[in-house]
Amino acid sequence: MYRSLRPIIIKEFRQIRRDPTSLGMLLILPAALIVLVGYALNFDVKHVPLVIFDQSKTSTSRAFLDKFKQTELFNYRFDVTGYNEIDGHFTNGRAKVAIVIPTNFAEDLLVGRDVRVQILVDGSDANTGAQAIGNAARITADYSTRLVVSAFERMGRQYYQPIDFQPRIWFNPDLLSNQFLLPGLIGFILVLTAVISTSMTVVREKERGTMEQIMVSPLRPRDVILGKTIPYMLIGLVEATAILVLGYVLFDIQVKGSILLLYAGIFTILLGSLGQGLLVSTVTDSQQVAFMISVFSSLLPSFLLSGFVFPVSSMPIVLQILSNLAVNKFFLVLVRGIMLKGVGFSSVWPQFVYMIVFAAVMLGVSTKRMQKRTL
Amino acid sequence: MNEYAIEVHDLTKKFGAFTAVDRVNFNVKRGDIFGFLGANGAGKSTTIRMLCGLLQSTSGTASVGGYDINTQPELVKFNIGYMSQRFSLYDDLTVEQNIRFYGGVYGLRNNRLRDRMDWVLKMADLKGRESSLTRTLSGGWKQRLALGCAILHEPKILFLDEPTGGVDPISRRNFWELINRLSTEGITVLVTTHFLDEAEYCNSIILINAGKLIAGGTPSQLKREHIKDPILEVASSNVVEALEVIRVQPWALETSVFGTKLHVLVKDEEEGKVSIRQTLSANGIQTQSIQRIVPSLEDVFLYLLDKETARAS
């Protein structure tokens, strides 16, 4: 068995070494993605540009507005003197949030009347807008509470808050995006590179006619498939290791659970992705088409449908059903569970079952198709 | 051991409603160079691919080296070499790495691999270029290296599918000398080509058209048996006009252009010569010479193909 695989495996490694583009894709792309995702892909909204329309112009209003100027959540830019100026700043993108203080802000507060502070938000960037509203609301609520507390104290009474809301965050206490994204990135990179490189290596041989030459030899299709996928399996495992090491060195992301279990998961998703790549290669004889189908069938589902960036639970129901086609969805649950929560096999076995079924279907169908085509 | 290396009986391949190979029968003697001729798309490659185990036949049987292609494909594969017009080499590997790979695929190791590699390098005249990248080799070298890789495991039967496509004339001649040498060593060679001059190198030929076998035999047999009427070669002042006026004459059985001359098949040599001169001068065309020629294979095949087309329509 090994004797018939050996020449193919050796040849495959020699070709990978000589091909700068495939080497680049297998090694540089993952490294670049880790750095990009780790540093740039950040969902925490900070430094939102802010303008202030203070019609009260009192020490009371300034004390309130100072809370907005002191936080890094907003970037105080200008004071304005009218709504038309706010309009101008919003249109030019110089500001995304405006706070409007009414003329009788100080007087109303003093006598205990309700005060309406208006917050205008540029909604064209929905995520930033929503988070900015939340942040502004929190700052305002804090300030209000403080006013109430001091009012109570002046009356000589103890302030009492009926419900004390005390969030305590598990697994990722600082709510860092990259703690959540980087484990997911492992699945994304593995699926992408495994599908593309496997389909390309088979289709390239078809294009050159070398596949035909191998098929007239006594090697069985099974040996050919194994010989061609084993090198990419090894590369995938090396890649996964590199991502884990980089994540630890650059972002201090550690594996809380069993490394062995994590690698079992990595092995399983690689198996399915290699199968998917082989399946793509049985559909077409051209490298260009193979590349397009590979990218389309691996990048889109594992990026958009898997829950890597966008939570599956907030998708429309049709997409939620479709998301089950993305093997990365199941791997993500597994890898986040093992890495961030340190869970064991008992909580991720359903994911293993799914990924094994996926791999079996992909490898089974592609082997069948390959035998049919070449016999 | 019987006298034939390849025996084909009623071999048929259908792709959907299209019949690519239609009940083909032929036998190839051991040690022969067997030419398989026909236009592109006539079914040559499909037949070869079935014999090599690359395609499943729809019906019919064939044996290669004594093994049945339908029931013993693995044994067939051990005993054949196959080389296609694409010179299936890895461009991004060196000459030696290509040989090592194909050697490994056929299970050659250690001394045997070393001996055979040495033999291939000598045969292909690639000594000293072992570590050149294959993509830097010229067409002729690639062709010989591909041939070498196909016969590393010393098969008794060699299939060559359009082996001389895209190669310069000198390399083509060298290649045929190589094939001849292999044949004298007892290797049976089945070669497809659409170069009819190459067919002259073969001991035996078959012609296939639209999936059907239409003729077979040695080159000289084919020339003698099929064209009994004389062929006249006509040189004139205007070959195109000459073709137009002669083609419609009832005494001109077959008319075709060969270079700047016209080949006309007639019933009788002397009568034909007179009729041609009269017709041409009546149309203002000058006759430069008329002489009877020995038919070439090209004459034979054009004649057979015309007859086949006429019969079909």
Explain how this protein is built.
- The complex is a heterodimer of chains A (375) and B (313).
- Chain A is mainly alpha-helical.
- Chain A folds into two domains: 2-41 and 175-374, no CATH class; 48-154, abc type-2 transporter like domain (abc type-2 transporter like fold, 3-Layer(aba) Sandwich).
- Chain A has 14 helices and four strands.
- Chain A has helices spanning 2-18, 20-40, 59-70, 83-92, 105-111, 126-154, 177-208, 210-215, 221-251, 259-283, 287-305, 317-322, 327-341, 345-374, and strands at residues 48-54, 74-79, 97-101, 118-121.
- In chain A, α2 (20-40) runs parallel beside α9, α9 packs across α10 and α10 crosses α11.
- Chain A is elongated.
- Chain B folds into two domains: 4-219, Rossmann fold (3-Layer(aba) Sandwich); 228-294, Alpha-Beta Plaits, CATH 3.30.70.
- Chain B is built from eleven helices and 14 strands.
- The longest helix of chain B is centred in the middle third of the chain and has 16 residues, at 169-184.
- Classes of the chains: A mainly alpha (375), B alpha/beta (313).
- The A-B interface holds A 3-4, 6-8, 10-11, 14-15, 18-19, 208-210, 212-219, 374-375 and B 52-56, 73-74, 77-78, 80, 82, 84, 86-93, 97, 100-107, 149-150.
What is the CA-CA span between the terminal residues of chain B? 44 Å
CATH architecture of the largest domain in chain B: 3-Layer(aba) Sandwich
Class of secondary structure makeup of chain A: mainly alpha
CATH class of the largest domain in chain B: Alpha Beta
Uncertain stretches of chain A: none
Largest sheet of chain A: 4 strands, mixed
Q: Residue-averaged pLDDT of chain B, rounded?
A: 89
> Can you write the helix and strand succession of chain A as a string?
HHEHEHEHEHHHHHHHHH
The level of helicity of chain A is: 55-70%
Number of helices of chain B: 11
What's the total count of β strands of chain A?
Answer: 4
Content of β-strand of chain A: 5-15%
Sheet with most strands: strand arrangement of chain B: 6-7-8-3-9-10
Which protein chains are joined by the largest interface, and how many residues does each one contribute? Answer: A-B, 24 and 31 residues
